[in-house]
Structure formats: C-alpha cells, structure tokens
Amino acid sequence: MEIVISIGAKLSEYTVAPIARQLGYLFYYQSNLENLRTQVQKLKDAKERLKHSIDEAKRNGEEIEAVVLNWISRVDGISDQTLNVLTVGGQGNTRCFSARLFPNLVLRKKLSRKAKTLAIEIGSEIQNAAEFNKNVNRQPNYGGSDKSEFGDDRVYGMGGVGKTMLSKEVAKQAKEQMLFSKVIIVTVSQSPNVENIQQEIAEQLRLKLEEKTKAARADRLRYWLRQEKKILVILDDIWEKLELEDIGIYFGNDRNKFGVLSEREAASLFNSIAGDTIKNLAIQPLASKIVNECGGLPIAIATVANALRNKSPPVWNNALQELKASTPTNIKGMHVKVYSSIRLSYDSLSSEEAKSLLLLCSLFPEDENIDIEYLLRHSAGWGLFHGISKLEEARNKVVTLVEDLKTRCLLLNGDFNGFVKMHDVIRDVTVSIASQERHMYNLSDVAELEECSNETKLKDSIAVSLSEIVRNCQLPERLIFPNAQMLFMRNGGLLFRDPLNPYLELKKLRVLELGGLGLKLLPLSFSFFRNLQTLCMRYCHIGEVPMLGELKNLKILDLTGSYIEELPKEIGQLTRLRLLDLKDCLELKVIHPNTISSLRSLQELNMKGSFTNWKEVGRNGDRSNVSLVELKSLHLLTSLHLCLPSANILPKEFFSEKLERYDITIGEFFGMHADFGLSRMNLDLYKKRDVFNESGLENLLKRSQVLYLIGLQDLNNVVQELDVEGFPQLKHLHFKHNHGIQYIVNSMEDDHTRGAFVSLEVLIIGYLKNLEKICHGKLTENCFGKLREIEVSSCGKLKNLFPFSVAEGLLQLEKIAVRSCKMMEEIIIYEREGDSQNIGYETIRNIQFPQLHTLTLCYLPKLIQFYSPTNANCRNIQRTTKELVSNFTMSLFNKKVTFPKLQNLTLRGSPTLNELWHGQSEDLLCDEEPACLFSGLKGLTVFELPNLIHIWDKKHRHTNGSASLNLKYLHVSKCNGLKNLAPSWISFQNLIFLEVSKCNEMVNLLTLSTAKSLTQLRMMSVVGCKSMTEIIEDKGSELGGHDDRIVFDHLLALKLHGLLSLTSFYSGKSTVGFPKLKHVSFARCPNLRSFSHGVVSTPELHKIVLLHGGQDDDELYNSGGEFSSSDVDMDWPVTDKELDFDALDALDDFGNEDDGKPVVELMDADINNTLSQMWERNQIGLALQQ
C-alpha cells in the first residue's frame, strides 16, 4: 500500500510528457539493458579491430596518432561504467524489502536511464572507431630521447659445445612460456654482415625494411624495438666485437660493445678448463699472461686451456711464446687470437698420428658427419699406423685418437653414433695448416684448383680433396699429382669421362675415394696405381672392371651401395686384401667360385644387405656361384657380416671362435632395425635344431650383444635351452612368433640360470602364445638390472610382467609398453613369502621406478592393478568382466608404487578399470612433494575405458586450493563413465592440446575454474559426445560472480563435432575471450543456438566452418586431426623438442577444415550473432522441406 501511495505522489508532481518519459525508463528497463549489452559487444569488437590496425601500423614502424590512443583510454572508462550497470542490473538488488515479488522501481529507473545514455554514447564512439581505422598512424619520429634499454646476458664456450643449442632452447622456452612479446634469434657468423643481420631481424618482426642505408635501417629497427615492452633478441655465433647500435639494437648505457669476455670472466673460464694445473705457483703468472693473449675470446681460451691442462711450467712458457708469434697468413676473417690458440692446441698434440688424423678430417666437406670407420680405412691405407697389421687394432687406435681430439675440443660428436664433426673455425685453421705445412689441399672451387695448378702447388701435394667442386663444375683437361698419396672425389664421374686416356698421373697414390661413378670400364690410369692401399668406390655403377686385379698392393676395397651384378673374379688376385666391403650391393647375384677363398689375407668381410645366392653344400648344380665353405679357408677373418636365406646351407664348424665382430641374418627380415654397432644375430628359424646344427651358430649366439629371434617353435625356455649361462653379454633381445615358449628364464629347474641377462638393456617380446612368465623362480639381484626398455605384445597367457623381487631392481627402466595380453591382471606382482596365505596392504613393500618416463598399457581386458599381491580377492573368485566391474572397485595405481619421472601415460582398452588413482587429491594438494603419478605427467591418453568413473577424484573436504598439473597433451576417448573431464580443483595451466571424443555420458567438459586455467591451450577438439550440453559448466558462484573473464589466451583452433545435445559453449554471463582464435569448425550440433550468453571476443576469427549432416559418427570422429580407431596408442614426446611453437603460432589451417567444405563469414564480427542466424536459416530450410 505504501508503494502505491509513493507512486501516486510522484505522478502528481509531473506533467504528462515527463510522466511518459519516466515511465518509459521503467517499461523499457529490460530492453535498454539488452541494447546496452549489444552495444558493449560492438564496442569491444570495434576496439579489437582498431587495436589490430594499431598493431599492424606499429609493425611497420609507424607512430600512432594521439587521438587514437586517447580513444582507447576513453572507451576503457566507458566499459567500466557499463560493467557496473550490467552487473547491478543482472543481480537481485533491483528488488526491495528482500522480497522477490517487489521490484525496486527507483533503482530500475536509474539503471534504465543510465543504460540508454551509455548506449547512445557507445554508438558515437563506434562511429569514431570506424573513422580511425582508415588512418591510425602518422609519420614515425625516429629522433628524441629513448629511456628504454636492453639488458645483455652472455653465453660463451668453445665452438660446438652447445651455445647455439642452448640459445635455441632459451628461445623455445621463452616462446612456450610467453615470457616475451617477441623472440628473435639471429646468426651473426664469423664475418658479420650488418645488412643481413638487420634484414633477418626485420623478417622475424614481419617488418618491411625499405630504407637503403644501414643507418636508416638501424633507426627503423630501433624505433620498432622501442615499441615492444619485452622482447628477446639472441645473437648467435659472435666472433668479433659487434657494434649493436649500428644494427639498431640500442643500450641505454655504455654496454654497446659485445662479444668478448671481461678479464675476470676470461680468467674464470680458463681456470675451470685448466683444472688443478693452475694451482702451481710457477704457472699462475704465466696463466695470466696467456689469458691476456687470448683477447677475451671464448674459443681461444677454451682451446689453449685444454692444450695446457696437466702440462709442466716449461710447456706453459713455450705456449706463451708461440701465442705471441703465431699469426694467420691466409685465412680470411680469422681473428689472430683465435688462430694462435687453435694452432697451439694442434702443436701440443702428443703424437704425429693425432695431428695427421686431424688434418685428414679437414679434407672432408664443411659440416660433414665424418664416419670413424672411413677414418680407419683412409688412415690405414695412408700408412698412418706403423707396426699395426690387424684392422681391429687399427680401429682401436683411431677411436683412441678421436677421443683425445674430442677431449681437446678439436673434434665434436657427430649427429649419429660413430660419427664426428669439425667446428667450422677449427676446420679453417687445420685446412690452413694442412695446405701450408703438409701440402694437403681441400679445394672448394675450380678457380682455386686452377690457381694451385698454375703455381705448381699440386705437384708437391701429398693429399688432394676435390669433393666439393666436382659436383657441378668442369675440371681442367689434365691434372698432374705426381706426389699425391690421397685423392678424394665425390660424384667424380667427370674425372674419368675418357677411359682410354691416362687422365691422371698418380704413381704414388695410396688412398683413392670416388663416389657416383658410372663406369663400364676402369680407365687405363688405374694400371699405374701400383701403390694403392685403399680404394673406395661407393654408390658407383660398375661394369667390367678386370683391371682391379692389377692393384696387387690393395688392402681395403669398399664398394658400398654400388650397382654391380657380378664380382670380378680378378679380385681373387688381391692376395693382400684385408677388408672387402660389399654392403648394400643389392644387384650382386654372381660371385665366382674360388674368388673369395683366394683372399687369404682377408680380415673383414661385409656383405650385409647384399649377396645371398650361396651354393648349398653337397648339392650339385650351378657352379657359377660361391659356397660358404670357401669362407672357412679365411683363417685371418675376424669380422663377418652376412645375410643367409636359411640355416640349411651352413657347413659344419662354419662360424669360428676367432670372430670378434659379426652381424649374421638368417631368414627373412624386412625393415631391418638400426645398426647398433654391436655384434648381432637375426635368426628366423623354424626349429631349435637349426641353432644346434654343428655350424658354430650356437656359440656365436651366446656371444651376441643384439639378438633377434623369430620362430624356434620347439623352444620352451630361452635361457635354459639356448645359453644356460644367461647371455651375459646380451644387450638387446627381440623374440617373437613362438608357440612353445613358457618362460624366458626359469630358475626352478636350474640354479645356473639365476644370474641371467645381467647386461640386457632392451627386451621386446611378442606373439608368444604360451608364454606364462618372463621369470619363473628366484633370480640374482643383478638379473635385468640394466634394463631400460621392455615391450610386450600379444602374449595371451601372460598374467604379469615381473615379480616384486625382480622389479625392485629395475632402477634404470625408462619405458614399459604392454599391449594385447588378454590375461594380464597386473604389471608387478607381490609374492607371498614362505607359507603365508594372506598379505595385508600395510605389509606390502613400496616400489619405485626412478627413471620410468613412458608407460603404455593397451587392450588388457583383465587388468586390475599395476602392483598388487598374489592373493587379491579378485583372483580367488571366478567372475565375468561385468561382475568384476560392478562388485569389485580397485584403483589401478596406489601409494605403494611411485614414478617420480613419469611423463607419458597411455591407457587403452581395459574395461575393468574404475579408478586410476584413489585419493590423488590428497597427494597432489599436500605440502610435501606429491607422490601421485599425475604430478609430473606431460602426456596422458585415456582411451576405451568404459567403466572409468573419473580421471581425477573429487576434492576431499579437508583439502584446500587447486593442483596445477604439468600436462601438455590430453586425449580422452570412449570413456562413457565420465560425467566431466576434471573437477574444479584441477588446473591445466600448461595444457597445449586437448582432445575429447565419444564420451557419451559426459554432460560438460570443464568447470569454470578449470577453464580459466587453460591459458596455454593451442588446440581443443570435442567430437561425438552425444550428451554434452555445454563445454564449460555454468556455475558462476564458483568464482564469485558473473563478471569474471574466461580467456583462452593462446587457443588457435576449436573443433566441435557430433555434439547432439550441445546448446552453447558456455551458458554463463562471464566474458569469454579468444584473442588468437583463428579456426572454428562445427558439425552436427543441431541444438547449438548461441556460443555464449555473455560477451564473446574473437578479434582474429573471421570465418567458421560448418559441416552439414550426412556424416556418421565415425566419419566425424576420424576427420580433421582426430586419431583413427586403428591407432594403438599415442606416445607423446618425453621432451618439448618435437613441439614447434612457431608452427603453432603461425597456424593457417587446422586439419584442412575448409578444404572444399562450407565456410561462413563471421557476421558483424560476432560469433553469437553468426550462430543464431545460421541456426535460423537451417530451421527455415527444414520447414521448406516439410
């Protein structure tokens, strides 16, 4: 009654027109607020478009008009006012007396009037923004003061020790963690070109440098760099002092000289390398002078310190004098201090053999991966090692020298095992030394070759490498190297284009390497190579080459990869030949009898991937081919690589105990595995008798380091029947396709087998249908102690991998993968001790796998626990899978087992699993270091676990806060027991990829708090979840109000397919921001009428892809980047090296979504408005069809 009287009193104070106006504010209260919301969204979009124009102008180094910047500031203030109006209008305080039925009319009138006023003001600002977009900039002003400055950090060290790698990793981490707005890395090189450096910086900034002079370009770069609040510029490979200001990188103080170390830094680096030698009082004053001679250059300091380590004072005195006297004479751009330091390191080498081997490396092309085996063959042919006649001894000598050169930083580890590289600066110095002092020439172009020829240098040369110039250049008509001992030519076909012309004079030649030759006949000049020791003709097309028989002194013949159908029988005349390499000669079909047996000095024979047409012993027939019996006459043979079609052709006592290195393949092996550089056997045999056939194969098998076994159907116990000593040298064991084996090792019948596999690092077994146990009985502590990787697949009777007694010793295990073992119940089993019938949970001992980083468990239908006692109730009761699931709930993991370094977990196809980790919230949220396996996980794949009720359990009452996970990759599919992805206490602040599919009971994907944590997410895909109504659950109270923003800062691509119940991405009022979203795809979401009920910001989104009906669930599931159902599991990278953040940030297409598919342009830059109109058009289309 009081309200009615109050209204009446007010009405009596106004005329009719004012009354209508005031009542209008009340009548149009809701519409005014809604209009304001619409205007706010349009203003936000206008602001985003304007900011995009501003950013583009800044990228071009243009200065922004002050009126534009003032507009940005002004609309920010308007946005704050509108937020207050809309917040109050959307809450319950527009009603009075705490009664829901009585609206507060005075407050509503004020809010309505304010909303209308603000809407008009916003409309005006939107028009202003449209005008600004036409021209936001004015001409740049490069002058004026600059208060900003760069900080500098220096990374120094010997070339090749990892500075570049470290710099790239720093750049990668900076990009990944978004520490800087821009990250730029530029290679300066030994001879820096300022224009090139400027251009490279500009390109990475997406800036066009149109200025012609260096100074103008520097001004442009400096101006742009000032616009960035936080930018990281990495300059790599600096050799000299570099004027950064000339480039455009400005320091606000005097730190504009960059590239050398201070006196204290130089001394620190030198002392750390020289070690305890520097403590000698007689050496300390010399050390200071030597450091000064190095000029603060890291490469000079490192080489000198390595050379002088553990040397006496006289050596240090001599080194100081050499540093002062040594100067480069012909190396362009070489710093004198760098040259003198490398020269000193070379001179200090302890033997002429080491010096010669280093100079030999300098004859290889720049940045080449140099095979140590090639160094052996070249140096042995050169006669580098006096008094060594055995190749294996020479090989050991080469390896020793290489290791010494690497210790001195003169050689680096190559990109592959068994290879080395030279740093380019080290190579420049050694090339100079080789040419000036040893007459060894590495010629890089024809002009250099002609210059050497004109100066008669080549007449005195002892080694010539033309490897880098014969590829595309025409050589001179005649080359005369009368004193040359070594000649290297790759792709050298041009050299021998006239086989009748003695093209070269190489009478003293000892080593000849050719590549890519096409020869039907060898040139007559070969008849003059009487002293040739090593001939390498790799990947050549070889016809009739009888002249090879003339090379009587040849010791090493390498025809690797060459096209040759018949081995010339004249090769049998090479009675001094020690090494014959026919590896990968795929077309070799004929080797005449008595050819190989004539090579009585042969020590090493390599026919891997080559000849297999061996004549079977005792069988008459074609006499055109060689028999294996001939190899028995090679009494000096110590290295043998062979491929044999079957064991039946092996003669008795064929394999000698003298063999030290071997790679023997018997049977069909497709897709040969990597060459580990170890003695190995690959055996595809039907019966065990094929091993014990008096050929010596059994003894060779026992000494192998790598063993591949296929078949052997009558084998029951690997260790007991093949090597009772337990394969003490074996490192890799692969055993597949056997129906008889019960145990890999069984100590119940033989105590000798308890110490089996003490050196084993890799165990891969599969398709062993009757395998019951890997280990049966007790083993010694060191059994399997070095195991790093185990993979088991399709072993139908195997119930567990290891007992606790073995598993507790697996301290080096890094990877476990178990797939398709239908009886597997647990991975590790805890045995009863003595006659104990029951094992209490508390009495079970804890176990840890300290190095395990990857765990894959796929298609194990009876899997219950990772680690459990032998008498668990589930084993004493015969139950079907459904009964087990409904009546027996057990966590897969528990506190009894820990994986402190686990980063990659894949679980797939195990219907018995209800829970992964019971009580994990307590472990993740406690103050101590969490024991839960999820704490350090980076990749998680959960697939086809239909009874899994949750991945992360709900938070317990006494726990507070949230748990931040390290996950970067999360894939969940076909888990119908899940209602949502994660509870609100889970934070995914590091997640990059999120894929969820075919979880048909999942109602929503994320809670509001978890969604807010997805600041690093790049890609989100949700497919085929039929019950999902929204992606983000609408519980505004969770975060304390509807005005909280949800921002997916780095999301690039969003896919929503086959979500039949989806009504919106988010139905709450919070603002949802996607500042980098570029790709959105919808398919079969018939109820998706709006994206969000609040404000949505998508400044980079200009189109969406709409896939219409007609595709079934599987097509949707497998399209556009989803994993196909044929995938067994997904092994995410253990480290971040495989993740290309540049590629992600520059993503232009997501799974080729819009390739031939309907694309809808965004309407009014508003995804909500676009979706609404699309939905309406679809409904109209259906009505017309009806």
UniProtKB/TrEMBL annotation:
Gene3D superfamilies: Helical domain of apoptotic protease-activating factors, P-loop containing nucleotide triphosphate hydrolases, Ribonuclease Inhibitor, Winged helix-like DNA-binding domain superfamily/Winged helix DNA-binding domain. Keywords: ATP-binding, Coiled coil, Leucine-rich repeat, Nucleotide-binding, Plant defense, Repeat. InterPro entries: Apaf_helical, At4g27190-like_LRR, Leu-rich_rpt, LRR_dom_sf, NB-ARC, P-loop_NTPase, Plant_NBS-LRR, WH-like_DNA-bd_sf. It comes from the Eukaryota. The keyword Membrane does not apply. Pfam families: LRR_8 (PF13855), LRR_RPS2 (PF23247), NB-ARC (PF00931). GO terms for molecular function: ADP binding; ATP binding. GO terms for biological process: defense response. Residues 33-67 form a coiled coil. Residues 155-261 form the NB-ARC domain. Residues 769-870, 893-984, 987-1090 form the Disease resistance protein At4g27190-like leucine-rich repeats domain. Belongs to the disease resistance NB-LRR family. PANTHER family: NB-ARC DOMAIN-CONTAINING PROTEIN-RELATED, RPP4C3. This is NB-ARC domain-containing protein. It comes from Rhamnella rubrinervis.
